[in-house]
Specification:
- It is built from two helices and 16 strands.
- It is an alpha+beta fold.
- It folds into two domains: 134 residues, no CATH class; 133 residues, Jelly Rolls.
- Strands 1, 2, 3, 5, 8, 12 and 13 form a seven-stranded antiparallel β-sheet that branches. Strands 4-9-6-7 form a four-stranded antiparallel β-sheet, with no helix packed on it. A three-stranded antiparallel β-sheet has the order 14-15-16, covered by helices on one side.
- A hairpin with a 2-residue loop joins β6 and β7.
- The protein is flat and about 85 Å long.
Protein backbone atom coordinates (compact mmCIF):
# COMPACT_ATOMS: atom_id res chain seq x y z
CA UNK A 1 0.00 0.00 0.00
CA UNK A 2 1.46 3.23 -1.05
CA UNK A 3 1.57 6.29 1.10
CA UNK A 4 0.26 9.28 -0.57
CA UNK A 5 1.49 12.78 0.15
CA UNK A 6 -1.41 15.04 1.01
CA UNK A 7 -1.59 18.34 -0.86
CA UNK A 8 -4.49 19.63 1.30
CA UNK A 9 -4.25 23.29 2.48
CA UNK A 10 -6.59 25.29 4.68
CA UNK A 11 -8.35 27.94 2.79
CA UNK A 12 -7.30 31.51 3.59
CA UNK A 13 -9.87 34.23 4.28
CA UNK A 14 -9.77 37.79 2.96
CA UNK A 15 -12.42 38.98 5.44
CA UNK A 16 -11.50 42.09 7.51
CA UNK A 17 -13.48 43.89 10.24
CA UNK A 18 -14.63 47.29 9.12
CA UNK A 19 -12.66 50.19 10.56
CA UNK A 20 -14.45 51.86 13.50
CA UNK A 21 -15.67 55.43 12.96
CA UNK A 22 -15.37 56.21 16.73
CA UNK A 23 -12.29 57.31 18.63
CA UNK A 24 -11.33 55.30 21.63
CA UNK A 25 -11.10 58.56 23.91
CA UNK A 26 -10.47 62.37 24.12
CA UNK A 27 -7.14 63.81 23.32
CA UNK A 28 -5.45 66.07 25.92
CA UNK A 29 -6.28 69.22 23.95
CA UNK A 30 -9.94 68.25 23.64
CA UNK A 31 -10.10 67.58 27.37
CA UNK A 32 -8.60 70.98 28.22
CA UNK A 33 -10.99 72.77 25.88
CA UNK A 34 -13.96 70.95 27.44
CA UNK A 35 -12.86 71.92 30.95
CA UNK A 36 -12.37 75.54 29.89
CA UNK A 37 -15.86 75.76 28.38
CA UNK A 38 -17.37 74.15 31.46
CA UNK A 39 -15.63 76.63 33.75
CA UNK A 40 -16.84 79.54 31.62
CA UNK A 41 -20.42 78.33 31.83
CA UNK A 42 -20.12 77.69 35.57
CA UNK A 43 -18.61 81.12 36.21
CA UNK A 44 -21.33 82.84 34.21
CA UNK A 45 -24.03 80.97 36.08
CA UNK A 46 -22.53 81.83 39.48
CA UNK A 47 -22.15 85.51 38.50
CA UNK A 48 -25.77 85.66 37.35
CA UNK A 49 -27.02 84.08 40.59
CA UNK A 50 -24.87 86.43 42.70
CA UNK A 51 -26.08 89.48 40.76
CA UNK A 52 -29.70 88.41 41.19
CA UNK A 53 -29.10 87.95 44.91
CA UNK A 54 -27.51 91.40 45.25
CA UNK A 55 -30.34 93.05 43.34
CA UNK A 56 -32.97 91.31 45.42
CA UNK A 57 -31.13 92.17 48.66
CA UNK A 58 -30.79 95.84 47.68
CA UNK A 59 -34.46 96.10 46.69
CA UNK A 60 -35.42 94.51 49.99
CA UNK A 61 -33.26 96.98 51.93
CA UNK A 62 -34.72 99.85 49.92
CA UNK A 63 -38.26 98.70 50.72
CA UNK A 64 -37.44 98.52 54.43
CA UNK A 65 -35.85 101.98 54.34
CA UNK A 66 -38.91 103.48 52.62
CA UNK A 67 -41.28 101.87 55.12
CA UNK A 68 -39.12 103.16 57.98
CA UNK A 69 -39.06 106.67 56.52
CA UNK A 70 -42.85 106.65 56.08
CA UNK A 71 -43.31 105.82 59.75
CA UNK A 72 -40.90 108.63 60.61
CA UNK A 73 -42.84 111.16 58.55
CA UNK A 74 -46.10 110.06 60.17
CA UNK A 75 -44.53 110.54 63.61
CA UNK A 76 -43.22 113.99 62.69
CA UNK A 77 -46.59 115.08 61.35
CA UNK A 78 -48.35 113.90 64.50
CA UNK A 79 -45.96 115.66 66.88
CA UNK A 80 -45.57 118.89 64.90
CA UNK A 81 -49.33 119.23 64.51
CA UNK A 82 -49.67 119.44 68.31
CA UNK A 83 -46.81 121.92 68.85
CA UNK A 84 -47.48 124.16 71.83
CA UNK A 85 -45.84 126.43 74.38
CA UNK A 86 -43.04 124.88 76.42
CA UNK A 87 -43.28 124.26 80.16
CA UNK A 88 -40.82 127.14 80.59
CA UNK A 89 -43.07 129.49 78.60
CA UNK A 90 -41.04 129.17 75.38
CA UNK A 91 -42.75 129.81 72.05
CA UNK A 92 -43.88 126.56 70.31
CA UNK A 93 -41.16 126.89 67.63
CA UNK A 94 -37.58 127.32 68.83
CA UNK A 95 -35.69 126.79 65.57
CA UNK A 96 -36.93 126.56 61.99
CA UNK A 97 -34.01 125.50 59.82
CA UNK A 98 -33.90 123.78 56.44
CA UNK A 99 -32.70 120.51 57.98
CA UNK A 100 -33.36 121.04 61.65
CA UNK A 101 -36.64 121.80 63.40
CA UNK A 102 -36.95 122.34 67.16
CA UNK A 103 -40.35 122.70 68.79
CA UNK A 104 -42.34 121.89 71.92
CA UNK A 105 -45.02 119.22 72.06
CA UNK A 106 -46.43 116.59 74.42
CA UNK A 107 -45.08 113.58 72.55
CA UNK A 108 -45.64 110.92 75.21
CA UNK A 109 -49.12 111.91 76.41
CA UNK A 110 -48.07 112.61 79.99
CA UNK A 111 -49.56 116.11 79.97
CA UNK A 112 -46.13 117.78 80.01
CA UNK A 113 -44.50 119.43 77.04
CA UNK A 114 -41.23 117.99 75.77
CA UNK A 115 -38.62 119.78 73.68
CA UNK A 116 -38.39 117.92 70.38
CA UNK A 117 -35.67 118.23 67.77
CA UNK A 118 -35.64 116.65 64.31
CA UNK A 119 -32.34 117.06 62.55
CA UNK A 120 -30.16 115.66 59.81
CA UNK A 121 -26.58 115.35 60.90
CA UNK A 122 -24.55 115.14 64.07
CA UNK A 123 -22.34 117.28 66.23
CA UNK A 124 -18.64 116.48 65.92
CA UNK A 125 -15.79 117.90 67.97
CA UNK A 126 -12.18 117.59 66.83
CA UNK A 127 -8.92 119.06 68.07
CA UNK A 128 -6.02 119.84 65.73
CA UNK A 129 -2.55 120.52 67.18
CA UNK A 130 0.37 122.28 65.52
CA UNK A 131 3.64 123.74 66.75
CA UNK A 132 6.22 126.13 65.40
CA UNK A 133 9.55 127.52 66.60
CA UNK A 134 11.92 130.38 66.03
CA UNK A 135 15.68 129.96 66.15
CA UNK A 136 16.72 133.58 65.63
CA UNK A 137 16.68 136.75 67.73
CA UNK A 138 13.15 138.16 68.06
CA UNK A 139 12.02 135.98 65.17
CA UNK A 140 8.63 134.69 64.01
CA UNK A 141 7.09 131.32 63.26
CA UNK A 142 3.96 130.38 61.39
CA UNK A 143 1.27 127.69 61.30
CA UNK A 144 -1.81 127.27 59.16
CA UNK A 145 -4.99 125.27 59.80
CA UNK A 146 -7.13 124.20 56.85
CA UNK A 147 -9.40 121.38 55.67
CA UNK A 148 -11.15 121.25 59.05
CA UNK A 149 -14.50 122.60 57.87
CA UNK A 150 -17.01 119.80 57.23
CA UNK A 151 -20.34 121.40 58.09
CA UNK A 152 -21.85 124.28 60.05
CA UNK A 153 -19.51 125.59 62.72
CA UNK A 154 -20.88 125.66 66.24
CA UNK A 155 -17.72 126.80 68.01
CA UNK A 156 -14.01 127.28 67.33
CA UNK A 157 -11.51 127.78 70.15
CA UNK A 158 -7.77 128.27 69.74
CA UNK A 159 -5.61 127.45 72.75
CA UNK A 160 -2.11 128.94 72.57
CA UNK A 161 0.91 128.27 74.78
CA UNK A 162 4.58 129.18 74.48
CA UNK A 163 7.96 128.56 76.03
CA UNK A 164 11.46 129.96 75.52
CA UNK A 165 13.60 132.91 76.47
CA UNK A 166 10.63 134.76 77.92
CA UNK A 167 11.52 135.61 81.53
CA UNK A 168 11.55 139.40 81.20
CA UNK A 169 8.69 141.89 80.83
CA UNK A 170 10.46 142.96 77.64
CA UNK A 171 10.38 139.40 76.28
CA UNK A 172 7.03 138.13 75.01
CA UNK A 173 5.30 136.60 72.01
CA UNK A 174 2.63 138.44 70.02
CA UNK A 175 -0.04 136.44 68.20
CA UNK A 176 -1.48 137.41 64.82
CA UNK A 177 -4.41 135.48 63.35
CA UNK A 178 -5.28 136.23 59.72
CA UNK A 179 -3.32 139.44 60.12
CA UNK A 180 -5.14 140.61 63.26
CA UNK A 181 -3.28 141.25 66.50
CA UNK A 182 -4.71 139.08 69.28
CA UNK A 183 -2.41 140.21 72.05
CA UNK A 184 0.79 138.97 73.63
CA UNK A 185 1.78 136.04 75.81
CA UNK A 186 4.34 135.93 78.62
CA UNK A 187 4.61 139.63 79.37
CA UNK A 188 4.56 138.41 82.95
CA UNK A 189 4.72 135.11 84.77
CA UNK A 190 6.90 133.11 82.38
CA UNK A 191 10.37 131.65 82.95
CA UNK A 192 13.48 131.28 80.88
CA UNK A 193 13.63 127.96 79.03
CA UNK A 194 11.25 126.17 81.44
CA UNK A 195 10.91 122.97 79.40
CA UNK A 196 7.12 123.11 79.58
CA UNK A 197 4.37 125.23 78.06
CA UNK A 198 3.48 128.56 79.70
CA UNK A 199 1.51 131.72 78.99
CA UNK A 200 -1.59 129.71 78.11
CA UNK A 201 -4.50 131.61 76.60
CA UNK A 202 -7.63 130.66 74.65
CA UNK A 203 -9.15 132.71 71.84
CA UNK A 204 -12.61 132.44 70.27
CA UNK A 205 -11.93 132.20 66.53
CA UNK A 206 -15.43 131.21 65.38
CA UNK A 207 -15.84 134.15 62.99
CA UNK A 208 -12.33 133.76 61.54
CA UNK A 209 -12.75 130.01 61.01
CA UNK A 210 -15.89 130.30 58.89
CA UNK A 211 -13.85 130.21 55.66
CA UNK A 212 -12.06 127.02 56.71
CA UNK A 213 -8.56 128.56 56.94
CA UNK A 214 -6.60 130.07 59.83
CA UNK A 215 -3.15 131.59 59.24
CA UNK A 216 -1.29 132.28 62.47
CA UNK A 217 1.96 134.08 63.22
CA UNK A 218 3.77 134.04 66.55
CA UNK A 219 6.31 136.86 66.75
CA UNK A 220 8.99 137.28 69.38
CA UNK A 221 8.95 140.90 70.51
CA UNK A 222 11.48 143.21 72.04
CA UNK A 223 10.11 146.74 72.21
CA UNK A 224 13.11 148.21 74.03
CA UNK A 225 16.35 146.53 72.89
CA UNK A 226 18.43 149.17 74.67
CA UNK A 227 17.19 148.16 78.11
CA UNK A 228 17.04 144.47 77.18
CA UNK A 229 19.77 143.88 74.59
CA UNK A 230 19.47 140.09 74.69
CA UNK A 231 15.68 139.63 74.59
CA UNK A 232 14.17 136.51 73.00
CA UNK A 233 17.46 134.98 71.94
CA UNK A 234 18.03 131.38 70.82
CA UNK A 235 19.51 130.25 74.11
CA UNK A 236 17.03 127.44 74.87
CA UNK A 237 17.72 123.93 73.70
CA UNK A 238 15.77 120.77 72.96
CA UNK A 239 16.38 117.63 70.90
CA UNK A 240 16.06 119.70 67.72
CA UNK A 241 18.64 122.27 68.73
CA UNK A 242 18.63 125.86 69.93
CA UNK A 243 15.49 128.03 69.83
CA UNK A 244 14.40 131.44 71.05
CA UNK A 245 10.78 130.40 71.58
CA UNK A 246 8.28 127.73 70.62
CA UNK A 247 4.51 128.11 70.24
CA UNK A 248 1.83 125.44 70.44
CA UNK A 249 -1.62 125.86 68.90
CA UNK A 250 -4.60 123.63 69.72
CA UNK A 251 -7.64 124.32 67.53
CA UNK A 252 -10.85 122.73 68.83
CA UNK A 253 -13.66 122.73 66.30
CA UNK A 254 -17.28 121.80 67.04
CA UNK A 255 -19.48 121.58 63.98
CA UNK A 256 -22.70 120.08 62.78
CA UNK A 257 -21.87 117.63 60.01
CA UNK A 258 -24.58 116.40 57.67
CA UNK A 259 -25.05 112.64 57.58
CA UNK A 260 -27.75 110.43 56.01
CA UNK A 261 -29.24 109.76 59.46
CA UNK A 262 -32.40 111.67 60.30
CA UNK A 263 -32.60 111.83 64.08
CA UNK A 264 -35.12 112.74 66.76
CA UNK A 265 -34.04 114.24 70.06
CA UNK A 266 -36.40 114.62 73.03
CA UNK A 267 -35.78 116.46 76.30
CA UNK A 268 -38.21 116.18 79.18
CA UNK A 269 -38.80 119.23 81.38
CA UNK A 270 -37.25 119.09 84.85
CA UNK A 271 -37.56 121.24 87.95
CA UNK A 272 -39.68 124.23 88.81
CA UNK A 273 -39.46 126.56 87.04
CA UNK A 274 -39.07 124.04 84.26
CA UNK A 275 -35.85 123.73 82.27
CA UNK A 276 -34.74 121.51 79.40
CA UNK A 277 -31.15 120.33 80.11
CA UNK A 278 -29.34 119.67 76.80
CA UNK A 279 -27.33 116.82 78.32
CA UNK A 280 -30.57 114.92 78.98
CA UNK A 281 -31.59 114.80 75.33
CA UNK A 282 -32.46 111.26 74.21
CA UNK A 283 -31.66 110.77 70.54
CA UNK A 284 -33.01 108.06 68.26
CA UNK A 285 -32.52 107.47 64.54
CA UNK A 286 -35.66 107.86 62.44
CA UNK A 287 -34.06 106.59 59.24
CA UNK A 288 -30.38 106.25 58.21
CA UNK A 289 -30.84 106.68 54.46
CA UNK A 290 -31.93 110.30 53.86
CA UNK A 291 -30.23 111.86 50.81
CA UNK A 292 -31.77 115.32 50.83
CA UNK A 293 -30.12 118.07 48.86
CA UNK A 294 -33.26 120.23 49.07
CA UNK A 295 -34.57 121.26 52.52
CA UNK A 296 -36.35 118.72 54.69
CA UNK A 297 -38.53 121.42 56.22
CA UNK A 298 -40.31 124.28 54.45
CA UNK A 299 -42.45 126.90 56.15
CA UNK A 300 -45.63 128.69 55.04
CA UNK A 301 -47.73 131.51 56.48
CA UNK A 302 -51.51 131.62 56.91
CA UNK A 303 -51.98 132.58 53.24
CA UNK A 304 -49.88 129.67 52.03
CA UNK A 305 -46.88 131.80 51.08
CA UNK A 306 -43.50 130.18 51.54
CA UNK A 307 -41.40 131.89 54.23
CA UNK A 308 -37.72 132.33 53.36
CA UNK A 309 -36.71 134.91 55.97
CA UNK A 310 -35.54 133.15 59.10
CA UNK A 311 -37.00 135.35 61.88
CA UNK A 312 -40.37 135.25 60.11
CA UNK A 313 -40.30 131.46 60.13
CA UNK A 314 -40.52 131.47 63.91
CA UNK A 315 -43.48 133.80 64.31
CA UNK A 316 -45.41 133.46 61.03
CA UNK A 317 -45.31 129.70 60.34
CA UNK A 318 -48.76 128.12 60.27
CA UNK A 319 -48.14 125.30 57.79
CA UNK A 320 -45.10 123.12 57.18
CA UNK A 321 -43.94 120.84 54.42
CA UNK A 322 -41.84 117.76 55.21
CA UNK A 323 -39.85 116.34 52.30
CA UNK A 324 -37.55 113.33 52.41
CA UNK A 325 -35.44 111.70 49.72
CA UNK A 326 -34.68 108.08 50.64
CA UNK A 327 -32.12 105.79 49.02
CA UNK A 328 -30.09 102.99 50.57
CA UNK A 329 -27.30 103.42 48.01
CA UNK A 330 -27.36 106.52 45.77
CA UNK A 331 -24.85 104.89 43.42
CA UNK A 332 -27.27 102.12 42.42
CA UNK A 333 -30.73 101.93 40.90
CA UNK A 334 -33.65 102.14 41.55
CA UNK A 335 -34.08 105.89 41.62
CA UNK A 336 -34.49 107.82 44.85
CA UNK A 337 -37.83 107.55 46.59
CA UNK A 338 -39.46 110.82 47.65
CA UNK A 339 -41.80 111.32 50.59
CA UNK A 340 -43.77 114.51 51.07
CA UNK A 341 -46.35 115.61 53.61
CA UNK A 342 -47.93 118.86 54.82
CA UNK A 343 -48.87 119.56 58.43
CA UNK A 344 -50.80 122.42 59.97
CA UNK A 345 -49.78 123.59 63.41
CA UNK A 346 -53.15 123.58 65.12
CA UNK A 347 -52.24 125.76 68.09
CA UNK A 348 -50.74 128.44 65.83
CA UNK A 349 -53.30 128.66 63.02
CA UNK A 350 -55.32 131.43 64.69
CA UNK A 351 -52.41 133.49 66.01
Amino acid sequence: MKNRNSNFELPTSNFQLPASSFHQGFTLIETLISIFIFLLLLGGTIAMIFNLYQTHSFQWQQSLAIAEAKRGVELMVKEIREAREGENGAYPIEKAGDKEFIFYSDVDGDGKTERVRYFLGEIQTETFVKECRSSVDDGSCFVSFSDFLKGNLVSAQLKISVQGDLNSSQEYVTIYIDGQNFGSLCKTGCRQCPGNWEGVTTINVLSLAQDGILNIEAKGSCPNPKSEPNCVQPICKDDQGLFSFKAKFELTITQEVQTPRLKRGVIKPVGSPATYPPDQEKITVITPYVRNAPPIFEYYDAQGNKIEDYPARLKDTKLMKIFLVVNVDPNRPPVEYQLQSFVQLRNLKNE
